[in-house]
Amino acid sequence: MYHPVVVRPLKIALGADHNGVRLKTHLATYVASLGHAPHDCGTTGTEPVDYPRFAFAVAERVASGEADFGVVIDGSGIGSAIVANKVGGVRAAVCRNEAEARSAREHNDANVLALGAAPLNGEGAQRILQVFLSSQCTVERYQARVAMVREIEAGRAWSGGTAPGGLSSEDVRRITERVSQLLASPGDREPSIPPAELAALIDHTLLRPEATSADIEKLCEEARRWSFYSVCVNPAYVKQARALLRGSSVKVCCVVGFPLGAQPPQSKVLEARRALREGAQEIDMVINIGALKSGDDETVWRDIRAVVEVCLESRAPSKVILETVLLTDEEKVRACQIAMRAGADFVKTSTGFSSGGATVEDVGLMSQTVAPRRLGVKASGGIRSYADVLRMVRAGATRIGASASVKIMEEAVAAAKGGR
Residue 323: what pLDDT? Predict the structure, then answer.
């Protein structure tokens, strides 16, 4: 009998109701024989039980990254598949034969296999699982369709490539270029940024540890009113922010590994995956600062790349926080180069929780370093006025992170009125 080559041990969660418990036990043994790691989510007996409990347990492990794949089994497989597909990040498919298993993986990138115990014996289910584990979604047009599914799941229906009323990355690029032109234009008047274009550059931020649900509600209301590009929140508030902003163009950005960056890559991956599943549309991750200062560039690269890959799966931009106040100029350049090599979309100056924030000099240095790869530069930390924003944008910032965003916008509006 054919056995797929084990490239690396996979973590596979298995769950079944009373109808599928025997088949589950058989498949768990088979999974272990391939060198993979099965995790039994129940049930363990033949007394009647409710399938949703066990299907949900499997789906949760897959969605959180604790398992690479899942197998759910009941009488027909249909009920368990319906339950599993209620969990964000899960794509469960009922497969009755090997052809359907191959299609589920190659065309739909399914990560949970649903089996019906009634029509299958152990050998037939084993063959289906073989094909499921050894097939991959590699064709670009299928990958694009799976990405569309993720967009729908995250509440980001599309129209010409953008969310309704939202801004695409190309829109933001054009706005940034226009702002740079305005600031570079000669003239007698002090250069300024039109308020609408300024708002599109701002991540309205609330990361204080004492922030309450009411504070997040206020943050989101302000973001709607001013049409900021995003709100930037801690992981605990992603779901609330996403719900409050549904139907608006404002995105949800979440910080990962915040504020120290000293977590292992696996922890940052789980944090990012959960945030994206709960509705985050951008991730700001803190690098392993100690590894960078130790000269361990490979560890820094793996740390960043792990989060970038999770973001790529969800088509979410990734920003890499350097905490520039703790670095030498040589280390800042090296960190930018590693971020470019890892495939990040932005480099970012600061968390706002260290001994200093963004400076014009750091933004300029970072902008020059990442220019060949056209990465964005996010200036954050200590930006409290419209004048601060103008200085950062002149230096090369393409995104601004600020908690004083409303004050900044009020100053911008007043400046625009005064220039008439």
Answer: 98
Q: Are residues 214 and 125 in the same domain?
A: no
- Same domain for 206 and 144: no
Q: Does the pLDDT of residue 404 top 80, yes or no?
A: yes
Beta-sheet strand order (sheet of 37-40): 37-40, 11-16, 69-74, 112-116, 92-94
417 as an active site residue: the answer is no
Q: Reduced to 3 states, what is the DSSP secondary structure of residue 196? A: helix
Task: Catalytic residue, from 284, 303, 345, 388: name it.
Answer: 284
**Would residue 161 count as lying in a domain?**
no
pLDDT at position 130: 95
Query: Can you give the residue range of the structural domain that contains 305?
Result: 169-418
150: pLDDT strictly greater than 90? no
- Rounded CA-CA distance 43/368 in Å is 58
Q: Residue 338: pLDDT above 60?
A: yes
Q: Do 363 and 228 belong together in one domain?
A: yes
Is residue 338 domain-shared with residue 382, that is, in the same domain?
Answer: yes
Under 8 Å between Cβ of 75 and 116? yes
Residues 7/35, Cβ–Cβ less than 8 Å: no
Cα 236 to Cα 7, 89, 321: the distances in Å are 35, 18, 19
For residue 73, give the DSSP letter.
E
- Do residue 117 and residue 224 come from a single domain? no
293 noted as active-site residue? no
SS3 194: coil
Locate 364 and state its tokens. 């300029």
Residue 4 lies in a domain: no
pLDDT at 186 over 70: no
Q: Please tell me whether residues 110 and 198 are part of one structural domain.
A: no
Q: Is 348 a catalytic residue?
A: yes
Q: Is residue 146 located within the same domain as residue 174?
A: no
**Pairing label, strands 92-94, 112-116:** parallel
DSSP string, 323-354: -GGGS-HHHHHHHHHHHHHHT-SEEE---SSS
